[in-house]
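Why do we care about 3D structure at all? Because function follows from shape, and shape follows, mostly, from sequence. That is the central idea of this module. The next example makes it concrete: a single protein chain, its amino acid sequence, and then its structure expressed as tokens.
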Amino acid sequence: MEPPPPQSPRDEHPHTHSHSSTSIPTTGTCCKCGGATTHAPPSQSPTSWPDLSSPPAYRPIRAPALNLPPNNTQAIILTPVPQSQEVPTITPPFHFQIPSKKITSPDDIRKFHDSPTSKNFLGFIVALSESIRGRKISDPCHESATVSNIVFIIENLSLWVDQIPPVQQSSRYGNISYRTWHERLTENAESFMLQFLPKDLKSSTIEIVPYFTDSFGNSSRIDYGTGHETNFAAWLYCLARMGIIKEEDYQAVVARVFVKYLDLMRKLQLVYCLEPAGSHGVWGLDDYHFLPFIFGSSQLIDHKYMKPKSIHNEDILDNFSSEYMYLSCIGFIKKVKKGPFAEHSPLLDDISAVPNWKKVNSGMLKMYKAEVLEKVPIMQHFLFGWLIKWE
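And the structure:
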């Protein structure tokens, strides 16, 4: 005999039809059993749901599960595909400042997305995506001294992981050695920036260092998610705003810098068992990343042989993951998650039925805007200063 389902606080008392005004039915019926009630529906509006999608038309018996499938798919489909934009570079006088958090509510999100800053930042992501379209990771590209410097910095961070092994502990997730690694990152971040900043822009460290240190996870919670990944993109955007990264560097920024960053983050996830920050469970795209799916799908646009359904071919994953980020992501997920792919990654499984990579890429860009840049729990940690303005 199965045990009874766990009771919510509202189920602790005997069920009658003289419900108090804490029940919020919408049609004058009982929200628990569907029977008629002796009271008319209360006039107050339901409790606001700031961090979730719109509530259903009825009040559920139990609190809504965190892993509900996204119900705004149609809204995402109908939104226009974000377009690439040129990043405007700053000119003297410079007013670098310590960046701070500004987003605390859905109203703040709407204000941000109506701003030129938001549109330009997303346009920068699109431009990076277009720079790698139809290209393999190993394809030759222009590599500036700045790009080489950044790659060297990330390789150093990876070496530190080898020097700071995980400690033996009882908890499965969140190895505390990660805090030692992150502390060393924080201590050295400014000197890293000074390696490639020109003399007139060295004062920018006060603004760009916080984006950089927030790009590799949170040392208190020992977690990592799409918000941290977005901070890395914001750091790159700041470098583009200062003219340190130019448009001719974009392909190398993706194929050299971002690929190294992705490798480092996977290493951190495996070695220190970082918790996923704000995971949607099986209804999310991935526990940790989003941008490599955008860049990776762009790489595969118009590929002669590989289609979205090719992710189910193990030979293709084995032979081409080193060249295509999307395949690398799928291969990594299959490595760290057990069970049928359609069960642990139903969204990616559904996407594999899309007819071509161009549609996958445009859908990923729209989804990134809706599921990352428009979510308060993620964007409440985003920083604004002089380079990325709160307008």
